[in-house]
Amino acid sequence: MNAYFKNLYQRTMREAYGAATAEIAASLRGGGNVLDCGANSGRMFDVLARDAGLVPERYFGIEWDPETAEKGRMRGLRIDCGDLNRPMPYESDAFSCVFGLSLLEHLLNGCRYMKECHRVLQPGGTLVLLTPNISTYFTAALILLGKMPSSGPHPDSDALVKREELFKVSNDQLQLDTERETSLHRHLVVFSYRVLLDYLKMIGFAEVRGHGFGLYPFPNFMQPMLERIDPWHCHQMVFIARK
Fold first, then answer.
1. Secondary structure of residue 111 in the 3-state scheme
2. Which of 24, 37, 38, 40 is nearest to 75 (CA)?
3. What is the rounded distance in angstroms from the CA atom of residue 136 to the CA atom of residue 55?
4. Strand 236-242 to strand 207-213: parallel, antiparallel, or no bridges (unpaired)?
5. Which of 29, 76, 139, 222 has a CA that sits 20 to 30 A from residue 152's CA?
6. Comparing C-alpha atoms, which of 83, 1, 74, 13 is closest to residue 41?
7. Cα–Cα distance list, 71 to 39, 57, 63, 80, 152 (Å)
8. Are 60 and 77 in contact (CB under 8 A)?
9. What are phi and psi of 192, to 5 degrees?
10. Which of 150, 147, 161, 234 lies closest to 192, judged by CA?
11. How far apart are CA 126 and CA 239, in angstroms?
C-alpha cells in the first residue's frame, strides 16, 4: 500500500508542478519581472531559464531561510531574505508574474500574503499558486479514523508527525524539521479548493482559474478523467489569478 500511495503522490506532484510551471512560463512571454516566493536557492529560475528563456535581470526571489537565500545570491540571483507573513519589500505594480509553489501552506498569514501578491502585481499580471487541498476524501477518511490530516496543519513535534504518518510518500531524503524556528516543511494553514477560489476573487483578482491534481485513492490511469470531473477534492491544487 505504501508503494501504491507513493506512486500516486509522485504522479500528482509531477503533474501539478508541470501545470504550474507552464502557466508561469506563459505569463513571462509578455515581458516584465517575475517574483519567486519561497525561492529556495533559485531552483525555479533554472527551470524557467531553460523552458522560457528567463534571464537573471527579470528574476526576483524572496526566501525566509538565510542560508538558502545566500546560496542563491552566490549564484548571482537577486534573492532577498524575508518573511512572507509580513508585507513584501517591493513597490506596488512591480511584477508581471508572482508565484508561490508549495508555499501557501507554510504561512501563518496566508491571506495577508495573497493581498500582498495582488498589491505588487501590475494590472493584468498573473499570480500562480500551488498548494495542497485540505478538503479531500483521503483527509476525511483520516479524520474519521481519528488521525491527523496528512496535508496539515502539522503540530510542532517531529515525533508526532512521524507517528501520525499513515503512508510515507515524500522523498526518503526529506528530514522532518517541524520543531525548527524556520521550518521549511511544516504546514500551518491548509486551504480548501472552494475557499481559496472564493478568497482570490474576494481580494480583487478579476480572473481566477483552478485545477486539481490527485484524487486519492483512485489509481493513476483514472486520475486525468477524475481531476476534470472533481477538482474540488483533489490532493493538490493550482490556481491562476489575473489582476
1. helix
2. 40
3. 38
4. antiparallel
5. 222
6. 74
7. 11, 18, 11, 11, 29
8. no
9. -95, 160
10. 234
11. 10
For 126-178, write each residue's pLDDT tens digit.
999 999 999 999 999 989 999 888 888 988 888 888 887 777 666 666 677 78
What is the C-alpha separation between 21 and 26, in angstroms, rounded?
9
β-strands 79-81, 207-213 pairing: unpaired
* Alpha helix (H) residue ranges in the chain: 2-27, 43-52, 66-74, 110-120, 137-144, 158-164, 193-202, 223-229
Nine-digit cell string for 37: 516566493
> 193 in helix, strand or coil?
helix
Q: With the C-alpha atoms ordered 165, 168, 169, 171, is the resulting torsion angle positive or negative?
A: positive
Q: Are 196 and 228 in contact (CB under 8 A)?
A: no
Q: pTM of the entire structure? A: 0.94
